[in-house]
Structures are given as structure tokens and as C-alpha cells.
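Researcher: Batch entry, complex prediction.
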Amino acid sequence: MQKLLSYLKPYRGKVVLATVLMAISAVCSLLLPTLMSSVLDEGVAGAADADAFGAILRTAGLMLAVSLVSLASVAGGYWVVYHVISGYTWSLRSALFRKVHTMTLAEVGRIGASNLVTRSTHDVGTLNWLISMLCGNMVIIPLMFLGGVALCMRKDFRLSLIILAAVPFLLAVFLLLSRKIAHLWEVSDEYCDKQNDLVRERLRGVRVIRAFDREAHAHKRVTEATRIMADNIIRANVSMAIIDPLAGFVLNTAALLVVFVGGIRMERGSVLTPGDIFAMIQYIAIILNAIVSVSFSIVLLPHARVAAKRLSQVTESKGVEDDRPAEGLRFSGNIDLENVGFTYPDSPAPALSGIDLHVRAGEWVSVIGGTGSGKTTLAELLLAFRSPTEGKLLFDGRDAAGLSPKDVRENVSCALQKSMLYAGTVAENLRMGKPDAADEEIWDALELAQIADFVREQPAGLDFKLEQGATNVSGGQKQRLAIARALLKEAPIYIFDDSFSALDFITEAKVRRALNERLAGKTRIVITQRVVSAMHSDRIFVLSDGALVGIGTHAQLLETCAIYREIFLSQTGGGSL
Amino acid sequence: MKKTETTNKPAEKRRLIDETLLRLLSEVRRIRGWILLSAFLCLLLIGCAVASPEILGRLVDRLYAWAREPEPGLAASLLPGVCLLFAVYALREALSYGNTYLLNNVVTRFFTSGLRVRLSEKLCRLPVSYMDKTPAGDIIDRMQDDVSTMADTIYGIVEILLTGFLQMAVIAVILFLTDWRMAIPVVLFSPLSVFLSAKMATLGEKHWDKHFDLGGKLTSLAEEAYTNYPATKAFNREETLQKKYDELSRRHQQSGIFGNFLSSIVQPVIIFVDALAYIAVAILGGWLILRRGVPVGTVVTVILFARQLSSPLENIAFGLSYVQEVKGAAKRVFTLLDLPEEEDPKGTAAVPAEGRVVFEHVDFSYDPEKPLIRDLSMEVQPGQKVAVVGPTGAGKTTIVNLLMRFYDIGSGRILIDGKDVSELSRAESRRLFAMVLQDTWLFKGTVAENVSYGCPDASREEIERVCAEAYCDSFIRRLPQGYDTVISEDSTAVSAGQKQLLTIARAMLADRPLLILDEATSNVDTRTELLIQKAMDRLMGGRTCFVIAHRLSTIVDADVILVLRDGQIVEQGTHRDLLARGGFYAELFNSQYQI
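Model: C-alpha cells for the complex:
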């Protein structure tokens, strides 16, 4: 929490300014009832005095001035507060975003992309909201409270005890309640999520549901969830609703006591005037307002604590990548894996073990294997997303462990399994690989990836806008755009990680042909589940359960590798050539 | 994102009362009895609100009287008033809590839940095409957030109309009765603060719209960046992305300052206007006390009443600023409720069962601009295995959509055993088919419930029997609770391949005369893959099957191969025939062996 608040540091001056402004406005609000009482007292006392009305006018003028100052200072205060909060939120978000991109793939995977999004939106928002609630009230409430008590004490010590007792009592009750209420809210949120999940599941499965004529069943499940959700929402709302009446009752009773006890004190000869008592009643009203508005932030404090804790988990995360600066190395394309093994942190069995794999510069190789065979882990090692837990990975004989990940990635161009395109134009997406690429180069890459025709058909051409997740193009088009992006980047090593899976055979054959022409002389690694994608390469590596079980050409492997033969048969049914 | 709908249409004037609001109010009529009860409670509340300053004023008046002419027995004379006021306070807070309790129960139980149930019912009858083109998040937002926002109308009605305007009116009357001279400034100033706060709310709305819009964009950017993390890193693009994010975030924050500022100063402005009224009362009151001998207590009462005006004023201001948002939400919900539903013929007594399928000159397209299937004709004999092949986007899954009547054909006829399917009810024609899709959908429930989804009355023995036939039994028995293990779409207890096997078992148990299979392209290990093939072969035995085929073995074994290209059947025949013909199929087939 402290670390998170440290982002407020640059705004120290402004925070002080806002506090002062808020304090001025609080003092003004405190002055008003006193002035009002003096009007009344003057009226009563001055019935015989000729200038009494003049005195009243003067006091009224003072009241106007005080009100104006109060409004101006509170407006100024909020203006500054929101500038501070806006700057603070910006810094916090920026720091989070930067932090995520220094974290390792394992850490990002552990926390999860959607959790990271929640943290940088929802959790930051909660903190932001809390700070804005507190910035105003943190100053005003204690001031009102202390000021009110001080003013009362000056008049009559015993009477002020009433306020002194009521306010902390209320705050204590709210703090105790807040735990219960926060819990009820959590439960209620949970049931909202459950209902949402059910609806999402139902929408996804609409075909199966209708095919089996089970809409009534699906509807019943949702209705049941809605009912349970309603019960929990009511419980949470109703528990929250106790705050307002409770605060009202306690403070109004306090005001009443002030009148009654004040009367008794007056009778016993205290210096109290009715005006003082009236002023105190109004202080209590002001305090009541302030407490009610802060009570909601008290109730949400546990929420904020959770948010802060989750944010700290990201900002304090130790799972960061090697941040040594890039040296601008240029590889020639030799890759050697020497007895490489990799075990995921919380997994008992290794994902890869004893891999000896040597690729010479300019070679075209394929890695084939089913789900869980370790193919993707291998790709992640080659991109320096993970480091081998055993053995060595060498680029041109240099141990990858001694290289900056940035240098490795500069030398490896890849089309990833999940295309991973960005919202923006086709040109912007492709230029990721080569920021200064000319339009002709982009067209050339699109041409090679067999997607130029599609782009040409779009009225905007290269400026055709892809939506987030590239949802406005098909899976095959996404893959081809990702391939084009990888091709545009100039590197000695190219990796295609399962990036032909959504292409039909004709298109794939064309892409394959284009790659071989264009990338001749570069190291190419095709990672795939499809025999068809692998069978033509110089050499094929067969992975099974994290071990290398075969190396050779298609023909050799059909002879020597049982697993390869099995894969081949299951996919082609032994279809003859 | 929600907000952009309104900002895009600046020409459309925002009226307070329109069709949406009226319909919203008519929805509220469903619970009018309860609302009336709440109104009654509010009246009592107002009674308390009015009584308390009156009593307190009298008490203070007594203090002032004593200050002028002290006489013994002040405490005793205060006591009855103090007790009465205590009772009034207690009653008021009890009523206030009771009213909130009542409204919450009524609104959530009858209003929002009712709407959600109606929306859920609506989902049963919406065409599949609607679900296909509408993101699930959009529908969920309507069911959840928009409905909640709509509930605010009820609180709004109670707050604006009852505790707001009514309380103000009552207070105004009482003020005039107490002292009409002092009442005038108080009553004159209140519309001013309503006006000012409403003005600030509209002024703020524009900024809020922009702020929310940018917020949505910022979230999308973060979402994209975090999911695309590997790509960003692989291309060393962290800094570029950071700059983009920081810039958007800066704009987002700046757009929020003014809106937040405006919302925060609504209350201070109301308090200021209040203070003006207060000052006017002070001057007038002072003068009245001095020159007209009005009792101090009267002035005190007026001041206390004037104070009571500020809370209904804030309520009204807040309520008004909210109306547009509530209407926006209501509009989205009503739009969903009003969508056209799937038309469904009554159905007939004679349901076909043999499995001869004929397409006669069928035309179909998802988008009228782009015709997809044109003049498709084919004939499939009972028990035949049909493999549908072709490049991506050729319309293979469209065949499934049409057979299952998820979409309606444009023209032509589809006949099953000579019967035009459009004469059958949708449920009837769907009951002819079992379906195994690539997208293995399982709902959150036990394994047994999932397998018996198409046949809910099946006994445990039957379920176990088909699971054994579909090679599921052994892995199901290894699950922690066996057949009673709860699984769902994203449960990791069963692998992708095992999910496929479960959907095959599900189709087996349903036991329908026709079968639709959409072969999975990948993501299954070789051993499970073999099991899936064997299970599928068993399932296909003796049934008329349509297979969206990716596996060569399936294609080679098919009785008929339909080769689709751009929505047309370009070739039709067995594997051998088609290869010999040397056309598109041969090209498709051979391309995989080319370097």
C-alpha cells in the first residue's frame, strides 16, 4: 500500500494545496452556524438597541463573504484534487503496464492476462475512487469534528462530550459493519458472476442446446441462478442500507441531548447562550452529512485493501526478465540444443528432457508432435521466453543464457500459434517486423503469404483496419497476416509455430513454396501437428512426451520411427501418394 | 462503449419524456401496489421530516425565552418535547430503513429478476443468427448491468417524485404557514439550485461520455497488450506500445478531470445557494425579531426547514442527471426483448425416420450482398456417408447450419424422406439429427448429465453402456467422482480429446436416424485420436451421415464426396472417381504432397 501511495510523491505540493483549500472551506462551513447564532443572539439582545439591525446586516455580509470563500475554496480544492488523482492514476497505470512487459512469460501466465487487465482497470479504479473520496473527506471530517468539538468546548466542556462520544461510536460501528457488508458484497458479486457464466455458456452452446431441444432446461438453469443472485443482492443492499438511518438516529439523538443537557446547564448558570446550543445543533448536522458520505468509503475500504494487495503483487513481482541491454548482435543461424530439459515450476514431470538438436544455418527443419509433446515449450525456449532448466541452448555457439533476450528476439522472426495481431491497420501490423518498411515491401510480404488479394479487395487496402483480436477476418486470414509479418522482418532464423493449421491444403502449399524461395539460406523451423506441413522439410524432428524420438527425412522416419508412422497413418489413413 | 451510441447522434435532441421512458414507467406498473405502499411510507417519513424542525424550533424557542426571563423548571418544561422528538427520530429512521428494505426486496425480486427471466426466455426463441453476430458480452451486459440500471428508475421515482418534489412542496407550504415573509426567499432560491445542478449534470454528461469512451479503448488496449504479450516481446515492440498506452491513458485521465470536478461541486453549489437563502432569512429574521417582535423560535424553525430542503434538492438533481443513462439502458433491454423470434411451423404428425436427404435448388447467404450457396442440389440415400470437403470459407459449416435449421434457406427445398423440412417444427427436424461438432460444448454439470443431454431420462446403465462404446468409460472411472464428477467447458479434469469422446457418447445415446459430424482439425494426441476415430466409426454405422471432413481416411472411405468451392458443389463422387477426373478435388488432394 505504501509503495502504491509513493506514486503520489510528485504531487506533494498539490496535495498540500488541496488540503489547505479543503481546510479553508471546512473552517468556513464551521463559521456559518456561529455567525447565524450571533444574528439570533443579536436580535434577541438588541431589541432595545437602535443599531442592532446594522449589526445584523454586518454579520449577514460576513456570512455571504464566508460562503463565497467556502465555495471558491472547495471548488479550487476539488480542481486540484482531480488533477492530482488524474496524474496519480496515470503514473500507476503506466508503471503497471511497463512492469508487465518486464515480467517473464511464466509470470504473465501465472497471473493471467485477464487478471492483469482487471488489475490495471478495475483495481486501479478502486484505488483512484478511494483516494478521491478520502481527499475531500479526510480533511473535512476531522476538521469539522475537531472544530465542532473545540467550539463547543470553549462554551461548555461537558456539553461537547456528547459530540465527542457520538462520532467515534458511529465510526467504530461502521468499521465493524464494513467487514460484514464487504463480505456480503463479495458473495453477491460471486453469484452475479455465476449467472453471467451460465448465460455465456448457454450462448456458446446454442447449437448443441437446440439440436437436443434443451432450451427449456437452459432457461431453467439461468432462472435458478437469477433467483439466488437476487437473494444475495438483496442481502448485501439491505445490510448497506442500515448505515444512513443509524447515523441519522445517533446524531439526531445527540443533537436532542445537546438541547436538553444544554437547557439544564443554562439553568445551572453556565455561560451557554441559546445561540451556542443552536450552533452546536448545526455542527452536528454538518458532521452527520460528512459521516454519511464517508461511511460508504469506509465500507469499501476492505475492497480497496484487496485491490491494493493485488496491485502490489504485480508491482512487486520478482518474476522479471533478464534486463541486460541489447548488444546489437547478428547471428548467422546455427542453433544447438545440448541435452536440454525444461520443467515448469509447479509441475512434477519435465515438459522437455534430454533434447539434443542441432540445426545448421540455412537449414529447413520441422518439429512434429501431438498435444503435450513439448513443441510449444521448444518454441518458447528459442524465443528466450524461457530458459532451459537443464542443458544448454546455443546460438552460433554462444550460450543463450549469456545473451540479452532482446538480442535473441532481434535475430528470430516468428509467426506464433495464436496469430496475435493488433487492432490497427494491416500496414501497422506488418511494420512491427520492420518499422521503416516501404509499401512495396509490405505488398511483397502479403503476396508471399497468399493474402495480398484479400487486402487488395478492401477499399482501404493496406489501411484496412483490423479490429481487436482481428475478429473481422477469418482464422486462415489471421494466420496468413501473421506469416506476412514474420516474413517482413529480416532475421537469420524464422520460426513458424503451428501457423498453417487453419490454411487449406492448396493455400498451404502455395505459402510453403513461397517461403522456400524467399527464405532460402535462412534457418527455418516449422513447428506443426500436421504431417503434410512437415514432410517436405530437410529434416524432421519427432517429439513425443517431451522427448526427441526421431530425426530424419520423411522417408527415413516412415521406416524407422513408429510414432511418426502412427501420426502419418492417423492423419492420412495411409493414403497413397 | 455503451455511451457512444448516444454521442454519435448529436442531431437527435435529448428529450426527457419519450417513448422509452413511458415504456419504462409502464414496466414499473407491474409492481405499482408495492410502490404505493412505499409512497405511503414516504408520506409518513415526510411527516416526521416536517414535525422534527417544528418541535426542535419550539425547544430552542423555549431556551431563548428562558434567556430573556430566567425562571426555574426549564429542564422539566423541555422534557416532553425532547421525548416526543426522540420518538419522532426513532420512527423516522425505522421508516426509512423499512422503506429501503421494502424497495430493495420488491425491486430485485419482482422487477429486475422478472426482466432477467423474460430476457432468458427470449434467448430460447431468438434465431441462432442473432447469437452468431452478437458478442456474448453484449447480451450479458444487457441482462446484468442494464437491468440493474433500469432498477434505478424505481429508486428515482421514489427519490425524485416522493421524497424530492413532495417533500419540497410540503415544506414550502409549512414555511408559508410559519412565516410567509421568510418563506419567500427560501422558496425562491430552491429552483435556482435545482436549475444549477441540472445544468452542471448536462454539462458533465458530454465529458463523461468522452471519458467512458476513452476508458473502453484503454481497457481494450491493455487487454490486447496482455494477451499479445509474446508477440510484443518477440518483435521487441514494448516501448512503442508503452508510448501508445501512456498517451491514451493521459487523454483518458484528462477527459475525466472536468466531469469529476463538476459532479463533486454540485453539492457545494447547492450548499452555497442554501447559504444565500440562509443569509436572506437571517437578515429578514433579524429584522422581524427586532421590528415585528416575531419569536426567535419561528426564525429557528424556518432555518431548520430551509436546511431540510437541501437533501431533496440533491436527490432531484442526482435523479435528473441519471435519467438519460437509465433510458439508454432501458432502450437496450427493450430492443433485445423486441427482436423478431424464430418462426416455427406447427409441426406434423408424420415425422420421417429413414434418412433420405434431398437438396433441391437451394440458395442461401448470410449477407444479402454476398450470395454464398447458389442452386445447390444433391441426393443422399439412407445410410450413406457424405464427406463435405473444400477450402476454408467454401461453406462447409453452412451445410450444418441449414440441415439443423439454425439458419433458414433463401429459396429451394430440403426434403427428408420426401418431406419438406419447412413443414416440420424446428424441434421435430432437429430431433432427426445427432450432432458432434468441432467445438465440443459441455455445460457445467456432472459427466452423466452431459452424456445424457439429448436423452435426459436415460438410466445410469444406459449412460455407462454408451460411454463404454465411445471409449469414455475408463477415463470417466478414473475421475475423482466418476460419472458424478462436475465438468465444464474450461475444466482441466478432462482433455480436449476426452471432451470429443464425451460428445460422441452424447450423440450415441441420443440415437437419431441422421448424423452430423464436424471433424476436429487438431489438438488431440495420436492415441486419443485413434480412439475418436473408432468411436466415430461406431457412431456412423447404419446412419446417414454428413461429415465435415478434414481427415483423409474419412474422405477416402466416404460413399459420396461433396467438393465445395465458394458455396457451390463443384464436384461430387467417390475418392477414386474424383482423383481420376483430375479437377479441383485432385488439385486439393495433391497440393499437400507438393513441395
